[in-house]
Input
Amino acid sequence: MATGASSSSAWAVSLHARNRRCRWRSRTAVAVAPEKPAAAAVRVRSPSSVAECGLASMWRKIQGADDWAGLVEPLNPVLRDEVVRYGELVTACYEAFDLDPTSPRFLKCKHGKARLLHESGLGSAGYEITRYIYATPPEIVGRGGGGGGGRWIGYVAVATDEVARRLGRRDVLVAFRGTVTKSEWAANLMSSLTPARLDPHDPRPEVKVESGFLGLYTNERGRFSHGSCREQLLKEVSRLVKQHETEEMSLTLAGHSMGSALALLLGYDLAELGINRRADSSVPITVYSYGGPRVGNWGFKERCEELRVKVLRVANVRDPVTKLPGLFLNESLRRWGAAAGCYAHVGVELALDFFEVKNPACVHDMAKYVALLKGQHSIFKEGAPADSGINWAGKAAVLLRKKMEELAWRPDTALLSQVGILVQSLGLI
Output
């Protein structure tokens, strides 16, 4: 999955809501609420006594200690700034990923660890990158891919002393990009649940996740590699937690699209294995998900909540990617007692509603999220009127088909049918 936002199919936007307004909605991953009237613009709470205290004094709430109660609707300015900040750090993964087949760094990062943030315009972000992370799609492993099979997927970084003081804690960040290569697309849409079994001492067969995401997370890179994506991450995060064991800390896992799925798997894994536990406390684990798909079943959702893995899902309600997997078999079936074997979103939703009339592809664009939250330019370009009669759903379907052809990927008929129905039901307007 390449770029996007989220909302369950039960919350699909009305097909007649063709306007240029920007709207925020907040709900938990399970709640089903009636449509709210659209606001004229993004609502941001005016500075309150709490917000004026600064991030350092309220960082636990901003990281989801109380499930963002009272911070999402209306959107607290401190939380907004943090969502923007982490969004920019995720965007750097796209800007640094080398897609030039003639480059010696093809499918790797264009820059060294000391230069990545600077070259991405984030030189003042205040993080030091400590490790790059690589992952191997299942398709590469199936073909017997060797050491060159690993694709650069993101990085691990830690806040500098100066930024740690401003944040109120030492923040360890893991940032993941979304899907870019065709083998990643194929892995992401396997759409079959399989037991995670990440803790060998307590396999929990009722906790199931999407097989493609799990494969990307656990596959070995090859005989000359440093291990799977999972092994690399567990080793580095464990090292940093131990290195800063006497400090206030947070573990922040941020990703877009496929990257948000990996972030959530990592958060669950860290908590299940107890890597975030200390003698008398636990290091908070927070996932900032941008345009993320569903990752696991109801058992996975409940276990994440038991382990206090906090997830804020920043989502565009018009994005098809966030409806998959589980287009039909999802958490909305819980009211009929049939959710146990279905996919379910985890966490609290911070819902956006934006669509650029001239470009249907923007509904899943990471840069659009950041731009909207920063308020730097309009979400809707001036152009064709909303009721111009142009078949935007058809244009979106053509665009999706073209993307699949570019990737030389042939999904099965059932999946194509699901995507087609989804595009039509959303209207992408």
The radius of gyration is 20 Å. The chain is about 35% helix and 15% strand. The longest helix spans residues 77-96.
